[in-house]
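User: Hey, quick favor. My workstation is busy. Could you predict this chain's structure for me?
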Amino acid sequence: MYTGPWSVIYIFDDVDDKLYVFHQIFDDILDSYAPIKEVKIRIRPNPCVTEEIRSLMKMRDYWRSWQGKQRLIVKRTSWLPMNLTNFLPQ
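Assistant: No problem, here it is.
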Protein backbone atom coordinates (compact mmCIF):
# COMPACT_ATOMS: atom_id res chain seq x y z
CA MET A 1 0.00 0.00 0.00
CA TYR A 2 2.87 2.37 0.75
CA THR A 3 4.54 1.76 -2.61
CA GLY A 4 1.67 3.18 -4.65
CA PRO A 5 2.10 6.61 -6.26
CA TRP A 6 -0.57 8.25 -4.14
CA SER A 7 0.78 11.76 -4.79
CA VAL A 8 -0.63 11.56 -8.33
CA ILE A 9 -4.10 12.01 -6.87
CA TYR A 10 -3.26 15.60 -5.79
CA ILE A 11 -2.53 16.67 -9.38
CA PHE A 12 -6.22 16.55 -10.31
CA ASP A 13 -8.77 19.11 -9.19
CA ASP A 14 -11.95 17.25 -10.09
CA VAL A 15 -13.22 14.77 -7.52
CA ASP A 16 -14.24 12.25 -10.19
CA ASP A 17 -10.72 12.27 -11.67
CA LYS A 18 -9.21 11.78 -8.20
CA LEU A 19 -11.53 8.86 -7.56
CA TYR A 20 -10.68 7.31 -10.93
CA VAL A 21 -6.93 7.55 -10.24
CA PHE A 22 -7.43 6.16 -6.73
CA HIS A 23 -9.28 3.14 -8.13
CA GLN A 24 -6.60 2.57 -10.78
CA ILE A 25 -3.78 2.65 -8.23
CA PHE A 26 -5.71 0.54 -5.74
CA ASP A 27 -6.64 -2.08 -8.38
CA ASP A 28 -3.01 -2.31 -9.52
CA ILE A 29 -1.88 -2.94 -5.94
CA LEU A 30 -4.59 -5.54 -5.36
CA ASP A 31 -3.71 -7.32 -8.62
CA SER A 32 -0.07 -7.53 -7.58
CA TYR A 33 -0.91 -9.08 -4.18
CA ALA A 34 -4.00 -11.10 -5.08
CA PRO A 35 -4.25 -11.72 -8.84
CA ILE A 36 -7.41 -13.14 -10.32
CA LYS A 37 -7.08 -16.89 -10.73
CA GLU A 38 -8.80 -18.65 -13.61
CA VAL A 39 -10.63 -21.84 -12.71
CA LYS A 40 -12.03 -24.34 -15.15
CA ILE A 41 -15.64 -25.16 -14.36
CA ARG A 42 -16.54 -28.80 -14.83
CA ILE A 43 -19.42 -29.69 -17.08
CA ARG A 44 -22.55 -30.92 -15.40
CA PRO A 45 -23.42 -34.59 -15.82
CA ASN A 46 -25.42 -35.67 -18.82
CA PRO A 47 -29.15 -35.55 -17.99
CA CYS A 48 -29.82 -38.49 -20.33
CA VAL A 49 -27.79 -40.83 -18.14
CA THR A 50 -30.16 -42.18 -15.52
CA GLU A 51 -29.20 -43.80 -12.22
CA GLU A 52 -29.83 -47.20 -13.74
CA ILE A 53 -27.43 -46.52 -16.62
CA ARG A 54 -24.88 -45.05 -14.21
CA SER A 55 -25.00 -48.21 -12.05
CA LEU A 56 -24.53 -50.36 -15.16
CA MET A 57 -21.53 -48.25 -16.14
CA LYS A 58 -20.02 -48.73 -12.68
CA MET A 59 -20.60 -52.48 -12.93
CA ARG A 60 -18.98 -52.53 -16.37
CA ASP A 61 -15.94 -50.64 -15.07
CA TYR A 62 -15.66 -52.97 -12.09
CA TRP A 63 -15.65 -56.08 -14.25
CA ARG A 64 -13.15 -54.55 -16.68
CA SER A 65 -10.88 -53.77 -13.75
CA TRP A 66 -11.34 -57.27 -12.37
CA GLN A 67 -10.48 -58.81 -15.72
CA GLY A 68 -7.31 -56.70 -15.96
CA LYS A 69 -6.24 -57.75 -12.48
CA GLN A 70 -6.75 -61.41 -13.25
CA ARG A 71 -4.70 -61.12 -16.44
CA LEU A 72 -7.05 -63.49 -18.18
CA ILE A 73 -8.28 -63.27 -21.71
CA VAL A 74 -12.02 -63.35 -21.34
CA LYS A 75 -14.61 -62.79 -24.00
CA ARG A 76 -16.38 -59.50 -23.66
CA THR A 77 -19.75 -61.13 -23.11
CA SER A 78 -18.49 -63.21 -20.22
CA TRP A 79 -17.83 -60.20 -17.98
CA LEU A 80 -21.16 -58.61 -18.71
CA PRO A 81 -23.33 -59.95 -15.89
CA MET A 82 -26.64 -59.53 -17.68
CA ASN A 83 -28.09 -59.19 -21.11
CA LEU A 84 -28.08 -55.46 -21.86
CA THR A 85 -30.57 -55.83 -24.68
CA ASN A 86 -33.33 -55.61 -22.05
CA PHE A 87 -32.44 -51.97 -21.51
CA LEU A 88 -32.49 -50.90 -25.15
CA PRO A 89 -35.55 -48.98 -26.37
CA GLN A 90 -37.96 -51.03 -28.39
